[in-house]
Structure formats: C-alpha cells, structure tokens
Amino acid sequence: MNAPTLPPSLIENPRLDRWIRFEADRTVRIATGKVEIGQGVVTALGQIAADELDLPLDKVAVLSGDTTAGPDELYTSSSLSIQVSGSSVRLVCAEVRAKALDRAALRLNCNPADLTVVDGVFHQNGAPTGQDYWSVAAEIDLTQNVTGSAALKPASRYKIVGHSTPRRDLPAKVSGAAYVHDTLPAGVLHARTLRQPSRGAVLASLDESAIKRAAKGDVQIVREANFVAFVSPVESVAHAAAVAAQQHAVWKNAKRIAPEEQEAAWLKGQPADDRRLGAPEPTTPPKRLVQVTVSRPYVAHASMAPSCALAEYRDGHLTVHSHGQGMHLLRKNIAAAVKMPVEAITAKHLHGAGCYGHNGADDAALDAALIALKLPGKTIRLMWRREEEFGFEPVGPAMLVTLHVDLDDKGRPADWTTEIWSATHVQRPGSNSGFLLATEAFAEPPPELEPNDPAEARGGGGTRNAVPIYDVPAHRILHHLVLKPPVRTSALRGLGALPNVYAIETMLDELAARAGEDPLAYRLSILSEPRGRRLLELVAERANWTARGPAGTGKGMGLAVARYKNSAAYAAVVAEVTVQETVTVDRVWCVADAGLVINPDGARNQLEGGIVQAISWTLKEQVKLGEHGIVSLDWDSYPILRFSEVPEIHAELVDGAGHPALGVGECSVGPTAAAVGNAVAHALGVRINDMPLTRERIMAALLKS
C-alpha cells in the first residue's frame, strides 16, 4: 500500500507536538503557522480540531503565529489556510485521537473499537469509563511524526464543522484589545522613521537640532547609514520629529520617475523575462481573430491602520510582535538582516487592521528591531505614518492583458492566447525576489535580485487565472515579467486573478455580442465543467437574469464566473449598476462552491469582503506617481469605496460537502470586477477596458461612441 500523501505543512512540520498539546486546565492547544488577517481561520481551525477530537469547541484553544511553539507554515496567503493548515490539523487530531483510544483500551483491557469519545471522555457501551484524553495524555508520544494513516471522521458525523460559529477574534477587536497598535507595555518607547526615498539614495545632511526643536519634547535620534528613526516616551513627539525631518533632510541620488510610468500601458516594451506556457503556437494564421486589451493600475493595500510592530532586545534575545503574515519567515528574514542567529529571535503574531497581501508589516518589524538593538532593554513600538504606509509599502502591480482569440465558424473560441505584461507579484522577503525595506538603507545594502513570480504550481502570479474555465481547444500564455517597474510591487489579494478574469469575461461578452447571443447562454454553450455551470445557472436565477433590459439605458447587468487559481473555490457573480456621471453598483448576487465549508457565516463574510474590495478596485483605486515616488498619500488622493456606496449583496454557498474544503478568501474578487465591468458596458452601450472605471473614463468612452 502506498503511503498517504501529506499536506505540505505536515511534510515540513511532521512532529505531532508542534501541532497539539493537552493542557493542565483540561483544554487542548492546537498550534498553526497561519495567522488571522480577518478571514476567520483561527475559529475555523478550532472547529476542525474540536470535531475530529470529539471535544466541545470551548475546550480547544488555537495558538497562531508563534515561532517558539507553533509549526512553520510559511505565509498566510493564496487562500490556503483551510486547504493546507486545516487538512493538517484534521490529520494530526485524527492520529492523536486514535493513539489516545489505544492507550485507554490498554487500561480498560478492551478493543479500541469498543470505545467512543463524548466531549473528550471515553465511553464503553454508552457509559463513561473514567478515562479521558487528559488521563492518558502523558502516555502518548507526541514527539513522533504524523503518519496520516488514522481514519478521519466522515462528514456525516460532523457536529461543529459546517455550522456558523462566532469568530473568536472579534470580541477583543471590538474592545480594542487585539491589535498590535493598541498594545502598550509599561515603559514603551514610541518610534517613527525617516524613509530613504529610493534604493541608492544617500542622506547627505540631517539637521538634528532643527528636528528636535520642532518635536518640542524628549526625542532620541537613532541612525544607521541612511536609516533614521525618532524615539520618544511620548508618541506625538516622535511623530512630530518624523514630520519635521522631511524638511530638514537632504538626499542625493534619489530615483526619478517619468509621468508615463504610472500607466499600465508603459509596461509594454519594457525589458522583461518572457515566458511561454501552454499549447504550442498554431501552425495556420487566424481566420476570425478577436482581440481585447484590459488594464489595471498600481493598487495600494490601503490598510485601515498603518503598519506597526513591537520589539525588545533583552539579554541577547530579540522578541518581535508583528501583524505580518508569516512569523517564521519574518524571524529568519530579520535574523539575516541584523546578522543574528535565528534561535536568538522570537516572532509572535498580533492582529493588524486590514490587509490581504504583502503590505508594510514585515518592513515595520525590521524597523522596530533595528531600534531595539540600539536601545537594549527597552520595548519599542514603531508605527508608520499614514503617508509612509501609502508611499513605501509594496503595491499591487499594474497589469496589461491582451487576449487574442480565433473563432470557429460557429463563433466559438478555437484558439486562445493570453498575453500579459506585469511586474512581479512576490517581493516578500525570503522569496529570493525581495528584501525588508530598511536593509536598502544600510551602508552595505544587499545586492539587487532578479525578480521572479510565483510558480504555476502555486497558482502563478501575473498568470493567475489566465487559463479560462471554458472549453477552449488550445490555450497558451505569453507572460512578460517586467524587470524594473517604477515602484516596489508584491502580493495583493488575488495577485493577477482580477485583471485576468476581467479580460476573459470581457471577451466572453464581446463574443456573445458578435454571435448575437445572450451572454449567459453563450457561456453555457462552451462550459462543460459541472460545478461552474451549476453556479452560472444558479446566480442567473437568483438575479432574475431573464429580465435583463436592453443596452444603453444607463441601467446595466453583467455576469462572470471563475475558479480561483483554477484549483480553489468557484464563484459566479451578477452585478446590477446604474451609470450616470459615475457608476453606482446597486446589487450584487454571488453563488460560490467552496467544497466542504467549515464555518458558513465566516465563508460568506469572505465572499462579501471580496465583493466590496473588488468594486472599490474596479471603480476607484489607483496609485498615483510623481517625480520622486508615490504621491497618493492619504484617503483624499487615494479614494476607496465608502460605506454609503456598498451595494445590496446576496452571497450564497452551495452544498459542497461531497468535496474537500477549498480556499474561499479570494474567489469572489475576479468575478465581481468582471461582472461590474460587463454591467457598465451594458448600461452605457460602450465598453471601458481600463480600470478604474472613473467619471473621466466614462465621459471619454461616451464621447468616442
């Protein structure tokens, strides 16, 4: 018999004691390397463990993102927490449950099959035996590696999985006790930084006396080459010093950006690492070629709270608290930056206020660590200013996507080429593509790295969701990975999925129009994948698609469908819009298939959050560049969707219990953007292919028509 295939997290962290521990207070501690960034993963993992162990949920505590006691599961990203960490926790708990029953059976001189577990207590013939997990825990060798051979509980016996459970992280967040920003140890020192404007810029002079006068309080200046920080017992004093420093610092060799570099169209023709994936080039020229080009600009993470971290260096050990998405990798990256042994650093996760992707959290953690190393014995609370967050975090890459589709004589795709221009979607430290920001300000910065992108096996980066879900006889991708974009780019929710799905679903509407067919009927005619078909039919029914009116009335309805990464959850979306001078999204219907859903309410929250963020990206968001960098540095210059603009949302999950759990956190993003784009085209009678769909672009499109 072949050995069972273990999830990647168990292959890298095979010992049972990295995952589970029986506590003296008669609870079970489950550890995970995945962290809570608003997706409800800590609650859902607790549900999985409780069900597999036959324990009440309040007997399970989940430790998340702790390098001392938890497994290294890399970054919390790509909608993999439930698929990978959840399946790992399930296997670990099943194996430990089996080991505990074996020990109890030895004590009771019976067959383990004669025993059942009720709320952690072992029963025989329906009666308690006096034995439970905690009475046999000391006899279970948790230093062994997991085998994955224990039988898992069938879904039909789940009592906790599949039911909506209140999020465990919310009470502390509502009361202000959960966030790293609100953690204020006794004697804490507050810190702010003066940022190097670009790699290679040199701080020629700094008027420290003027800065201290402007701060109007006790402030200490910490400097290492081109990295400068201002530290004070009073937060407002540190902040004032950082603001004043902008006027009292002289930089040389700062990078300059040309105006045209802001737009996605600039990417075409730039030096790039060119890749070809998929089918070989066709041997005959196209007969009925249709082309569509769409673009997305640079997009900010726009976290509600700026990046923040706590650090303390005491007795040769550095402890860092961060809201980053991978504590083990953060620990390794800080160790490499400050040239310390990894074992001399502990990294622990605390919650941050809003981020899906690589924002400034890891960079702020190194900032705090650098200051803490200069001031041993002191707890440093380093927080970026709002302008710093917008100006120096990595941003989501601008993308230009052109589809070249050759049609058969029935107007269906016969050959499909997706051509993509994009900068890298991964400059996370430790990815061999990027560094922690402050290291570029060192006297000897690390050498520049050749950018890369996530591998296709991990869903791709710029190529994510570039393969249509539809029946296409031949498909290929031409990927131009642009080597030197004007700003630092990295992971943002969905990576390349949003512009790629937008392009695909734009093309499908165009092809339906050419064929004189309804967009839904056209899609169904070339979609044999049963789960995708089911969702399209259901969402059309929910939205009353058959009542869709004519084009060009100012009212529009559009639809789209995709499977995130072509391997995670499916989502079909219909959007209803009104277009006057601007676009108003009135209603959105979403039907998703995420396989086995652990916490339905939490999963619906993810669908709804993805819908809202996608609308904001599609209609409003664009990073603006100036001569020296990003100039959209506040909420006025970088507008996002307001609460008053959030549409009526109907999000629904189909029964997928017969399928394994699929990542749901990013699946609604691409289809929502595409559905809105198609709805706007239906409302106007003309199409806008460049995001965001602003008033200026609407007016220009109408004037051209």
Description:
The structure is a single chain. The chain is α+β, with helices and mostly antiparallel strands. The chain is 28% helix and 22% strand. The mean pLDDT is 96. The strands form seven sheets. A seven-stranded mixed beta sheet has the order 9-10-7-17-14-15-16. It has a five-stranded mixed beta sheet with strand order 12-20-19-18-13, with helices on one face. A four-stranded mixed beta sheet has the order 21-22-23-26, with helices on both faces.
Brief description of this entry?
By secondary structure, the chain is an alpha+beta fold. Helices cover 28% and strands 22% of the residues.
Topology:
Blueprint: H1 8-12, E1 20-22, E2 28-32, H2 41-53, E3 60-64, H3 81-108, E4 115-118, E5 121-124, E6 127-132, H4 133-136, H5 170-175, E7 189-194, E8 202-206, H6 208-215, E9 220-224, E10 227-232, H7 235-245, E11 249-252, E12 272-278, E13 289-296, E14 308-314, E15 317-322, H8 327-338, E16 345-349, H9 361-374, E17 379-383, H10 386-392, E18 399-407, E19 413-422, E20 475-482, H11 497-515, H12 519-525, H13 530-543, E21 555-563, E22 570-579, E23 583-593, H14 600-619, E24 625-626, E25 629-630, E26 648-653, H15 669-684, H16 695-704
Parallel strand pairs: 2-3, 7-17, 15-16, 19-20, 23-26
Antiparallel strand pairs: 1-2, 4-5, 5-6, 7-10, 8-11, 9-10, 12-20, 13-18, 14-15, 14-17, 18-19, 21-22, 22-23, 24-25
Helix pairs in contact: 2-3, 6-7, 8-9, 11-12, 11-15, 14-15
